[in-house]
Amino acid sequence: MKRIYLDNAATTITHGEVLQEMMPYFTNVFGNSSSLHSFGREAVAAVDNARDIIASNIGAKSNEIYFTCGGTEANNWALRGVAYANIAKGKHIITSQIEHHSVIDTCKQLEKEGFTVTYLPVDSTGLVSVSDLLHELKPTTTIVSIMAVNNEVGTIQNLKAISEIVRFYGAYFHVDAVQALSAMKIDVNELGIDLLSISSHKVHGPKGAGALFVREGVKIAKFMQGGEQEMNKRGGTVNVPAIVGFGKAVQLNDRDLQFRDKKIFELTTYFIKKIEYEIPDIKINGNPIQKARNIVSVTFNGVEGENLIMMLDMKGIAVSTGSACASGSLEKSHVLAAMGLTDAEIRGTIRFSFDINITKDDIDYVVRTLCDEVSKLRKASPLKSVKKEK
Amino acid sequence: MYNEKIAARLNDLRYLFPLKKANITLMSKKNEFGDVLKFFAQIDSKNVIQKISFKATGCSTFLVLCDYFCEIAEGKTIDEASKINEEDLMKFATLDQSRHHVYPIILGAFKLLVKKYNKELANKKIVPVDKVETKQVKSNTKKSATKKEVEVLEPEVITPANNENVIAVKKEVKVIQTITETADQKTVVEEKHTSHLLALKQKINNRENNEKAHNHTHSLNIMLNQINNKQEDKKPEKKSLFSWLKKK
């Protein structure tokens, strides 16, 4: 059976060149980067090389890059580290309602610990209003955390405008750029970013590696105790092979960014035109202009997204949904809810995330299968609210 | 959350269709999870569920378990089917605790279906599925083949795509077979019917590409043959009448 992977926003396949780059660090170069001997020094050199690559890619200095085990850790560290290190200034944090759970859940935990958090609303396309931010900023605000690219709908935020206001109020600006790294060029200086979270496996790198950019001078508390690794900011043995792979993946991502962006734009445009023509009563979510090209969020009215995912999976197509039926209740997507979609629309929303290995033939197959399965599911409904099929 | 058995069955739902000849249906109210279920059933005079089907909106587990419920309920009496419980449904697949909310929706909807059936049966609003046809035939036999009934068969009101009209033709043919008037009167009425049926057949044949039309033509041919056979049977009767008049 043909297998088509359209869930690249969840994770990507590890690039062959990345794997090749990593291999020696599983075998010959296996030293602990904290060791003083040559084995250790070899490992340190490899980690620092990756650090240099990543730093130059985002316009940062090497000593501003701290490796983590992934994007979630980087987000946790940025929020908790800044919140506690700047407690003298205040205990107010600002974020948006459409952030990743690693930000939202951390903020909720901080609220339990005595901090105040403002969750900014978004418009129907997923954009944070700069005037809302301006209204909520206080002298006690220590950090503002806004994601660059939304992982569910792909909306890109006005980072430059936000950073200007945040800096004016003397707060730190943290950006979750986990989804953005593969979608756009990021320059932390140009965008005025103080802290930035990135992850390896979203850019064809291995899982288990991420990084937090912390601008020099930003007051941030140590995240993990138990060692002096990562410039004494994060304890724990460094995952050398994964970091080497991360460095290579970022290098390749930067090299191919323009070509990939153009190809993915062609593919997603073709896909959107086809489904809009073939399937009635659907809606494309997200901002039509400020949008990551690889993410297409579609609401199929009158359909349960979970059923559609399972039916597509049986036909070899991997996609994902924004909601899951969990804990005895429907845990709906907080992103789509914040954008104002109804419960039924949220349940019928599917995310397709593309990569360059997809062909137009693959898209034809996906659209054909979608037509069949959506039609089946709509016919299964005893409710007559769904418009008639074409 | 992913369950291989659920995923496989989701692509092979056997009871997910509206049962057109259902003598009882029940649609559940939309619950907090957005699940809606409609049962269709054919229940006979011995309270046996001859056929059952469903339509539903809900998660994959919900659709699959509705399908499985229909599978185990079909062929059982309504009392037996009412005894199906969560444990019986659990036999299909081991589900995560978070999915257990689907059981009461399905079992509750079926109980409401049974309740509605019993109530409507008691109020004579519905008829057991095995009594439906017999009752209609009986009621038709009471009527005589009057001119009014023949008018029902006017070709212009019957279209090949309209199955109900063809059923009406069949019923009228049955009426013709049961009339108790003289043989000559019978022949007159039957000939009139025959001309109508031929007109119908002509009309249907004009729609060559219509598959339904083909089926209707086939059934009308059978009916015409039946009438022709009947007329042939009556020919000796006609002869004997003629010879009797001659003798007289």
Structure, described:
The complex is a heterodimer of chains A (390) and B (248). Chain A is of the alpha/beta class. Chain A contains 13 helices and 15 strands. Chain A has helices at residues 16-22, 38-58, 71-85, 101-112, 130-136, 159-168, 188-191, 229-232, 240-278, 305-314, 334-338, 343-347, 360-380; strands spanning 4-5, 65-68, 92-96, 116-120, 141-147, 172-176, 195-199, 210-214, 282-285, 295-300, 317-318, 320-321, 324-326, 329-331, 349-353. Chain A has a 7-stranded mixed β-sheet, with helices on both faces. In chain A, strands 9-10-15-12 form a 4-stranded antiparallel β-sheet. In chain A, a hairpin with a 2-residue loop joins strand 13 (324-326) and strand 14. Mean pLDDT of chain A is 92; it is low at 324-329 and 386-390. In chain B, 59% of the residues lie in helices and 8% in strands. Chain B has 10 helices and 3 strands. In chain B, strands 1-2-3 form a 3-stranded antiparallel β-sheet, covered by helices on one side. In chain B, helix 8 (163-178) runs parallel beside helix 10. The radius of gyration of chain B is 26 Å and the shape is elongated. Classes of the chains: A alpha/beta (390), B mainly alpha (248). At the A-B interface, helix 10, strand 13 and helix 12 of A face helix 1, strand 2, strand 3 and helix 2 of B.
Run of helices and strands of chain B: HEEEHHHHHHHHH
Largest sheet of chain B: 3 strands, antiparallel
Q: Please state the CA-atom Rg of chain B, rounded to the nearest Å.
A: 26 Å
Helix/strand order of chain A = EHHEHEHEHEHEHEEHHEEHEEEEHHEH
SS content category of chain B: mainly alpha
Instruction: Show unreliable segments of chain B.
Output: 141-166, 175-184, 235-239
What is the residue-averaged pLDDT of chain B?
71
How are strands sequenced across the largest beta sheet of chain A? Answer: 2-8-7-6-5-3-4
SS-based structural class of chain A? Answer: alpha/beta
Q: So what's the oligomer here?
A: heterodimer
How many strand elements of chain B? 3
Q: Tally the helices of chain A.
A: 13
Shape of chain A: globular
Mean pLDDT level of chain A: 92
The total count of strands of chain A amounts to 15
Proportion of residues in β-strands of chain A = 15-25%
Biggest sheet strand line-up of chain B: 1-2-3
Q: Distance between the terminal alpha carbons of chain A, to the nearest Å?
A: 28 Å
